Amino acid sequence: MPADKYVLGLFTSEDKTVSAMQAMSEAPWQIERVHSPIPSERILDSLAVKKSRLGYFTLAGGIVGFFAGLALAVFTATRWHLIVWGKPVVAWIPFFIVGFEFTILFSVLANVLGLIMLSDLPDLNWSEHYDPRCSGEHFGILARCPDGRQQELAEFFRTQGGEPRLFEEN
Fold it and tell me: pTM higher than 0.85 for the full model?
């Protein structure tokens, strides 16, 4: 099976980039990444990215944290048997405060863990298909195509007003 090749189309404006991305939706090539020097809602809308699953990590961390905090408070109270003014050893209202604190702590930890897992960090080859001009004044669309069709994809980027850059894949 022939290896896929990568072509980066460099554009000078957001409008040309979005137009090229929309034109590529019907083309046989696949967009791998889009580089932008600025945050762009139009580019995100054109990518039609699915909703992130990061919130599920945060929710699961919060639920686990709440019950872990509550369990820790109940466990320590039953081990110490500190009876203050005849109140019950397991006092639920103060224990909810501990549960709340653990909810926040575990939510943050699960969020960071989910962020690392979902974004495939660390990406040690981040600069493999990158052009430094995308950090300044250019937008870049990195697209993948079958071997032998790089020139066709490069010509597509030229017709869209971009400057193609071909990468040799290992």
Answer: no
7: β partners = 143, 166
On the 0-12 / 13-18 / 19+ scale of CB atoms within 10 A, 87 is: exposed
Q: Are 11 and 17 in contact (CB under 8 A)?
A: yes
Calculate mean pLDDT across residues 23-31: 86
Question: What six digits make up the tokens of 31?
Answer: 């967009």
For residue 161, name the pLDDT band (cuts at 50, 70, 90): very high
The pLDDT value recorded for residue 37 is 92
Helix (H) or strand (E) holding 56: helix 54-80
Tell me, what's the pLDDT at 19? 92
The set of residues, in sequence order, having a beta carbon less than 8 Å from that of 142 and lying 6+ positions away, is 6, 7, 8, 31, 32, 33, 34, 35, 129
Secondary structure class of 163 (helix, strand, coil): strand
Distances (CA, A) of 85 to 82, 88, 89, 105: 10, 9, 10, 32
Signed CA dihedral, 78, 84, 85, 90: sign only? negative
SS3 22: helix
